[in-house]
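Write out this protein's structure.
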Amino acid sequence: MRIPLSFSQERLWFLDQLEGSVAYHMPTVLRLEGALDVSVLEQTLQSIVSRHEVLRTVLLSEDGVGYQKVIGVEDWILDQVTVTDASLFENDLQSI
């Protein structure tokens, strides 16, 4: 189902198409100490994402027209990356 963009979304979509943008991406790297049960973390995030469509909404385009699409709850997965050399991220690393 295609959902039209709001004026604000259309402006952001246009700027992204024109020059590319990562201004609204906020990646972070965390160093976790102690044991982590990844399945519990994934279930917790899945619960949050299932309640909030905005977290599953992507902006797409076809024939030069932007639109939004809500990804189904069942299509959301937690990507996992194991970093063995933390020095690559020392400037971004936050301990919790």
